[in-house]
Specification:
With 389 residues, the chain is an alpha/beta fold. The chain has two domains: 3-44 and 177-339, Dihydrodipicolinate Reductase, domain 2; 55-173, NAD(P)-binding Rossmann-like Domain (Rossmann fold). The longest helix has 17 residues, at 365-381. Helix 6 links the parallel strand 4 and strand 5. The protein contains 14 helices and 15 strands. Helix 3 (66-76) crosses helix 13 (347-357) and helix 6 runs parallel beside helix 7. The model is unreliable at 1-45 (pLDDT under 50).
C-alpha cells in the first residue's frame, strides 16, 4: 500500500463519504470492501503490436490544442501524417516542431486535391468545421474533427446530406470518452454487465477559464456554438453510448453567463436533463474550475445501473490519488477501486480500420449525428439564467 493510498484511507475514515467507501457495517462478510485489484478481467496493457491497417492523412486547422491528441490517436492507429495547413504562423511553428515528419502545405486546396490522402483531421475554429468537413467528403476523403464538430442545426442538415451522398466518414473526436482510459474501461464493464442495466448517466464537465490565453472567437456564441453545443457534446456522446439509447430528447436545459459580464455573448454555465429510449441523463458543464486544482477540470461521470454504479474521476482525484483515470465500482458483490492508467485506447486504430474497410467500429455515423443533434437542440431551447451575485 503506497503513501497516497494510506493517506486516502486515513482521510476517508473521518468523513461520511469515507465511511461509505470503506466496508459497510454489517456487510463486510458479503464482500463490500474497497480494493486496488483490477475488476473482473485483468487490466489490459497498452498494445505494442503494429496496427493491422495504415492510411495517409493530413491536418487542416490547428485552432484548438485537441489537434495534438487527435493526430497522435490516428498515428497510433496506423496513420501516416503527410502534411498540414493552418493560417496562423505561431500555430504552424508549434505543430511542425511536434510533428516534423509532416510537410507544410501551401493551402487547404493542396491537401484536398491530393489523391494520396485518405483522411483529414481538423481542430479549426468551430464555425468552420462543418463547411470544411463537407468539402473534405466531397473530395472523396474521410473527416475526423474536434468537438463540437457542428455548431448549428442548419450545418447538421447539410453535413448529413453530404455524408449520405458521398458515403464518407464524418467522425467527431469526443475525447472525454475516446481519449480517457477510465471511460473506456467503464464502457467495457457496462458491456460485461457489472452494474446491470444502465438507468442513468450523470456527466459533469468543469473547465478552467484561463481568460488571457483565449482567442477572440472563444467568447462569441455564433463562432463556438454555446456551452451546451461545445463542452456538453462530450456528455451527450457518453449518455448515448453508455445507456445504449438510439432515440433521445431534451427534457429541459438552461445556460447562463454568471461571472463574465465583460463577454456578453459567452456562457459559463449550463445543464441538461435527457430522456432516451434506454435510459436517462443529466449533464452539467461550466467554466469555474479554480486555480487551486492541479488540472484543468475535475471531470466526473456516474453511471447508475440496476445492480450497482460506477463513478469516474477522469483527470484527478481530490481524495489523494495521483494522476487521472480513476474508476470506482459498487455492485451487489463489492466496492472496488480500479486504476485505469494502462487501459488501451482503441479509437485511433478503429478509425483507421474503418477508413480502410468502410466499416463503423469506432463510432456509428448515426450515433455521431445524434449526439450533436441533442447538443444543438439543448442549446437552442435552453432557458437563460439570470442569477444575482
Amino acid at each position: 500500500m503506497n503513501a497516497n493510498r494510506r493517506k486516502f484511507i486515513k482521510q476517508s475514515l473521518t468523513t461520511a463519504a469515507g465511511l461509505a467507501a470503506t466496508a459497510i457495517p454489517g456487510h463486510a462478510a458479503a464482500g463490500y470492501a474497497i480494493s486496488d485489484r483490477p475488476v473482473y478481467s485483468e487490466e489490459k496493457k497498452r498494445p505494442t503490436s503494429k496496427p493491422a491497417n495504415s492510411i495517409k492523412f493530413s491536418v487542416i486547422g490547428l485552432n484548438h490544442g485537441h489537434i495534438y491528441s487527435q493526430t497522435e490517436a490516428v498515428i497510433r492507429g496506423g496513420g501516416e501524417l503527410v502534411s498540414f495547413y493552418a493560417k496562423e504562423p505561431n500555430l504552424v511553428e508549434a505543430f511542425a516542431k511536434r510533428f516534423p515528419q509532416a510537410k507544410l502545405a501551401k493551402s487547404e486546396k493542396e491537401i484536398l486535391e491530393d489523391k494520396s490522402i485518405q483522411a483529414v483531421v481538423s481542430a479549426s475554429i468551430p464555425i468552420d468545421r462543418a463547411p470544411l468537413g463537407i468539402e473534405v467528403m466531397r473530395q472523396g476523403k474521410d473527416f475526423m474533427v474536434d468537438k463540437p464538430g457542428i455548431i448549428t442545426l442548419k450545418q447538421l442538415d447539410e453535413v448529413k446530406k453530404v455524408q449520405k451522398e458521398t458515403k464518407r466518414i464524418y467522425s467527431i473526436m469526443f475525447s472525454e470518452r475516446f481519449e480517457n482510459r477510465a471511460t473506456v474501461r467503464a464502457g467495457q464493464l457496462v458491456k460485461e454487465g457489472a452494474i446491470g442495466k444502465v438507468i442513468q448517466t450523470v456527466g459533469l464537465g468543469p473547465h478552467r477559464m484561463n481568460v488571457k490565453t483565449r482567442p477572440e472567437w472563444f467568447f462569441k456564441n455564433n463562432m463556438y456554438g454555446g456551452i451546451l453545443c461545445d463542452i456538453a457534446s462530450h456528455q451527450f456522446d457518453q449518455f448515448l453510448f453508455l445507456t445504449g439509447s438510439t432515440e433521445a430528447s431534451v427534457v429541459s436545459s438552461q445556460v447562463g453567463n454568471v461571472h463574465y459580464p465583460q463577454y456578453p455573448e459567452f456562457e459559463d454555465f449550463g445543464d441538461v436533463m435527457l430522456r432516451g429510449n434506454e435510459g436517462t441523463g443529466y449533464i452539467r458543464v461550466d467554466w469555474f474550475t479554480p486555480d487551486g486544482l492541479n488540472t484543468w477540470g475535475d471531470g466526473r461521470l456516474t453511471i447508475l445501473g440496476t445492480d450497482g454504479f460506477i463513478e469516474l474521476r477522469k483527470y484527478c482525484d481530490i481524495g489523494g490519488r495521483e494522476g487521472g483515470n480513476h474508476l470506482f465500482l459498487v455492485n451487489q458483490k463489492e466496492t472496488r477501486y480500479v486504476d485505469c492508467k494502462e487501459v488501451p485506447l482503441p479509437f485511433g486504430e478503429q478509425l483507421v480500420n474503418d477508413v480502410v474497410n468502410r466499416t463503423e467500429t469506432a463510432m456509428s455515423q448515426t450515433h455521431c449525428f445524434l449526439a450533436m443533434e441533442l447538443a444543438l437542440q439543448a442549446q437552442k431551447q435552453a432557458q437563460k439564467l439570470s442569477l444575482r451575485k
